[in-house]
Fold each of these.
Amino acid sequence: MSNILQTQKINKSYVSPVETLTVFRDLDFNLEKGKSLFLFGPSGCGKSTFLNMITGLDEPDSGKVLINNKNLNISNSSNFLKSDIGIIFQDHYLLNELNIKDNLMIKSEEEEQLDFLLNFLDIKDIKLKFPYQISNGQKQRVCVARSLMNKPQLIIADEPTSYLDKVNSDKVIDLLVNYTKQFNTSLVVSSHDISYKNLFDFSYTIKDKKLIKC
Ligand code: ADP
Ligand code: MG
């Protein structure tokens, strides 16, 4: 089976005048196509650092990230983001000058898909509102909808339920996991809430500057 995601000997530290904080050392990791990964760990353990590197939002100090066997780096990451990867960011990055519908239609003009997602996530009544008029929980669900608009091969979600109540959290995880199964795509979700672990093919946590199975 081929890999959708691969990291090879990744090193990542944050350097400040006071200290050097090493988050990953010689990290090798593979995710096969069509599989889902749950990345669990407490706040500050390195989940976002890992996800930012595999989306091209940040670069490792050394080592490689491969998506679909192609090298990902900051200069080509926007090509991947347009087509192959759907990302749910912790900061939502919605465009303030566009309403919710237009924010979503940037990714695809399929109105049927748009209405399905807005209905399922219970945000259809904010379709014509602007990002500054909606709550963080609503923004998070818009971000989930946006990630699925163009039917990506790989979805990467950084704590996609952090602003949501239990009912909406369950819906979001259900949607992402079912999409992955239905279209045989791949999924990476980080969370500090372990309760969703069993819905995924694999679960990992971050320990000793590596990803380990948990
Ligand atoms: P998580 O997403 O699991 O909460 P992060 O990946 O955001 O964890 O952070 C991992 C560690 O790296 C934390 O100790 C955090 O303080 C530190 N860190 C994250 N981003 C930066 C940065 N830009 N500069 C310095 N330290 C950072
Ligand atoms: Mg984080």
Amino acid sequence: MNTTLPMNRSADAIDFIDDVALTGLLDVGSPEPQRVRDIIAKSLAKEALTVEETATLLRADDPALAEEIFDAARDLKRRVYGNRIVLFAPLYIGNLCINDCAYCGFRRSNPDAVRRTLNPGEVRRQVEALERAGHKRLILVFGEHARYHAEYIAQTVRTVYDVKVDHGEIRRVNINAAPLEIEDYRIVKDAGIGTYQIFQETYHHETYRRYHPADTRKGDYLYRLDGLSRALQAGCDDVGIGALFGLADWRFEVLGLVSHALFLQRRYGVGPHTISFPRLRPAAGIEFDPRFLVNDEDFKRLIAILRLAVPYTGLILTARENPELRRAVMDFGVSQIDAGSRIEIGGYTEFGDAQVMQREQFTLGDVRPLDEVMGQLLEDGYLPSFCTACYRLGRTGEHFMEFAIPGFIKRYCTPNALTTLMEYLVDYASPATRQKGLTLVQYELDRMPAGKHKEDLQRRLRQIRYSGDRDLYV
Ligand code: SAM
Ligand code: SF4
């Protein structure tokens, strides 16, 4: 065990994952169709499901019932989130790592990994490139290393916020890094972070032990499981959970994620803001058990069932997936995607379109530029959004759940999505994407009832388009 850094769990940390109980819920055969329909109806009434109810949906493998689950997820997504999709990009800061996760190209035992940490000037240049493409929201990604301590993360966040190119700026910085100590979360919170993400990787204890050696920090399952509880105790009330699908039975992981979400909600009065469900990707010299790789059909089911289980939690679909699959599953409940992503350290300026295995954690499935993804989303009738209003106005945590407040989306989210889209169209879009975007903006305006809100929005859209004003959010 690495003893140079503290590892204090919260005083009341508990391991709320009972493998035997969760496996038992999955081992009881196919459910009655009526029971499945009752659970779907509960979810469509926008109530979160219990772990047992989620397990019932997971056992519904009859193709006709699976179709009903897809339809319900589509319906719920449209009703809770509308047609908005929030866009962000990952920025890998450093790949030094003291852990040895068998599935990851950054693991310490990978002799071929080119180790690198961006210096502040290099961070700036990456952010400039991201701003020039039109990004407003980033997630900073770090390996686990003494060098990446809380003050270092906070300083990097401040550097990112400080970079402004023309009309470009980053308005929200999320973090994906190792679990911290309570006082360390306060330091990163003070730098103005959005979501702090930690993926449990696998909730299945035995599998967790297999992939995370006991003599590493990450080998401590409970320290990691408790990681976001400590964040919440420190006042970081915007947290993201996730599982790396492909290590253990995908249905077990879905129950783990739902158990975790319900635990945080019960104990801290606030559930996770987002759930991520990355699928294992090829990476330099990695080891895994191919039996648990998740095929596309099951991947669709897991997204749809997560959507139904936690109606108010954002779902993040990453560029690990290829463009066709991303397009196919978007409608089942995804609310955020990354686009134009590069995950080599320095990849936004240095390596063009090539993916360089020795420099990255794994390979990506979707390397299309942001503008191409925007064009596709617009063609498919989605409203791409770079909105960051809620977190900047302090609308986070237990006092605020945008999706749960009737009328909130229409009143705030759609207008903010439209103004941030207009900024993109004016400042960064190719002519073809601009044309598609302007058509969508007009379509959305036509659907809005006449009145003060609509007039305000039209005024702000004109200011952005013709007067050079920016960042006009409500
Ligand atoms: N080092 C920190 C940690 O492990 O929590 C930060 C995150 S790590 C750089 C980001 C995430 O990438 C991990 O939590 C894991 O889920 C995912 N990941 C690692 N190897 C992967 C692979 N081969 N394919 C897909 N995702 C992978
Ligand atoms: Fe390090 Fe994170 Fe990769 Fe594990 S997943 S080896 S902790 S970077």
Amino acid sequence: DEALKDIAKRKGLRFGTAVGSGKNQFGDPAYRALVERECNIIVAENEMKWQALEPARDAMRFGPADAMLAWASDKGMAMRGHNLFWQAEKWLPAWIAKEDFGSEPRRGAERLMRKHVQTVCAHYGTRIQSWDVVNEAVDPADGKLRQNALTRPFGAAGEIEQIDLAFRLAREYAPHAQLVYNDYMRGDTGSAKHRAGVLAMLAELKKRGSPVQALGLQSHIGSWDESADRGKEDLLQWRRFLDEVTGMGYDLLITEFDVNDRRLPADIAQRDLGVAAAARDYLDLTLSYPRLRDFLLWGMADHISWLQTWDEAPRTDKLPMRPCPYDAQLRAKPLRQ
Ligand code: XIL
């Protein structure tokens, strides 16, 4: 079969996946070979997150991500950076909440942000050409910007200022890089508030002249909750959303594609066809935007998918999920076609 990266290339796209450093991904030669064959771009599943790079204050740990980057450049694969700031409080390094920012907390938070962006961007230089600068800033429950230990020191309504600063710092220390805001914005009708919140934030950042260049569409599609059957109505909403985003001048990327199959039948053949059908509807529309040039999966094969252990939305029958184009034996599934 023709490699996915070659099929993508004919459409003017790059194709890739997230890779984790565990023994069943980066540590598995067969899985690595699959990635090398199919992909021309990768991203670290966890290894470039702040928590991973600086597990304790000033204790930088670049090893795992560096090993992956060395492999990627050896095999001629580009690598994206994910991510500089993850706005959900529980994904910030725990030590940040215990920081004493002193009598001028805003200055203290700004200093810490600058040090982080400077250290990480200086370490990677031009080897990382695209950064998820801010991840998941909008609370899907109400569309408002999330607060965390870094936004609070910025004072009332400081969230947008903290995000704006994040992008300005990234521009300063990674002047060559594409700067991306990354979020999930599931296409189901239930997440209308989420999408509205993202649009409002992107509009505000544009107004402020913040150097955001693209919106990363995580694209964890499929059935997450009762309202999440991506029917025709959902796709219409999704098109309207993408039209607004591109209308503001932002580029698009698919950054973390997979299909949650928790509401599809247990029968494997049926389930795999259902996954492929959901993917086709979503991708036909989303890949039709010329501003979209990168398509990355969040894992190539079912057994390594984060969804196997993500307890927010499990299958009620507890069967292993089948969200990826390859199965646990690295055999191609209908989604691959
Ligand atoms: C996930 C990883 O896959 C897991 O291994 C980790 O425990 C939690 O994070 N959105 C994102 C990714 O932006 O960073 C998340 O990755 C999946 C959802």
Amino acid sequence: MSTSSTSAQSQHAVRMVLLGAPASGKGTQGATLASSLGIPKISTGDMLRAARDAGTELGQLADGIMAAGKLVPDDLVIRLVDGRLSEPDTQSGFILDGFPRTVPQAEALDRLLEGRSVKLNAALHIDLPRELLMERATLRRTDVRTGQIYHLKYNPPPDSAELVHRDDDREETVRKRLDAYDTMTAALVPYYKGKKILRHVDGVGTPREVGERIRRAIDELVSAGASSGASASRGAAARGGADGD
Ligand code: AP5
């Protein structure tokens, strides 16, 4: 493949973060988007739960922290994400779900991507009122065999599903997770606004309606990023091939 077509492909690759409070719909939307775009969804929550279930040292450390509704230390999740971003399937793009969750994580992510000569081009923030977040979390169930996420009221599981109720989805723990979101993670909204890649998406509505809003926002952001990249390259070429963006 020529260098110019590789770079055009890279400009249109979706490299995004999904932001939003616990149970705002990041996992549901991320899974649909990942399968329609053919890129991986990377969920630090799923990775930490897998480590816990496998009984690794990291999983044992994370277990108590997650059950208490607190955040796992930055350096541990940054290492997890660094490893995952080194896998070849992320070269065509990726969706980060639940990472970053603090400003130091966001800064570390920028550095990890800079080391790979790519940038994020979209940060989508799913907005939902607190009372709906509570209902969505406490009635969530997951099929252990398929990983499919269900909701007892809005998306009931089939009889064949083998359901688990996440430990951290009990009402008291959800409250703590929502508080952790307000104190630590909400700061990412201004962080990505400053980088001009943030869009707010109304999370009220059916998964399909929310998904359509997200797709429109991504299309706008990715094409805006690609055209500013293209004009930066044209500018660099006009300046005699000096470095672009
Ligand atoms: P994580 O697994 O990332 O949890 P979260 O961010 O709290 O998000 P959730 O998985 O709870 O919700 P979601 O937004 O994905 O919603 P979903 O689509 O399932 O993290 C868990 C823990 O791990 C953290 O508390 C922390 O301890 C640790 N951790 C993870 N990442 C970390 C990091 N980077 N740094 C530090 N610690 C970290 O939807 C929820 C429910 O609503 C489902 O039942 C679904 O079916 C339903 N639903 C979804 N959309 C709709 C809709 N439009 N209408 C009706 N129902 C809907």
